[in-house]
Amino acid sequence: MKDDHHAKIQYTLVERKIDYHYQLQKIATKHELVVTKDEVITATTAFGLHQVLDVSYKPFSSEAGILYLHTNQGVFPFHIHSNPSTFIETFLLFK
Q: For 2-22, what is each residue's pLDDT tens digit?
């Protein structure tokens, strides 16, 4: 059964590695954070809505900020570059 009621927001994951020449390399990849009526899905984990206590947002500028997913396993930060209001409203609607 397909659930058409969900919200998505894109986030950037930055991985830092030291290369062969001992230079710091930053590798940025884009992923989607999805909230459905049952769960919040990240690139690596799916949290049931009963595991998610809250969602908050801290803006850094008009274009960037961190979306915090407060779960019973800890707080998970997601670097985003768009307005998270639809995502947060959808989460609160399903919660």
A: 446 799 999 999 889 998 889
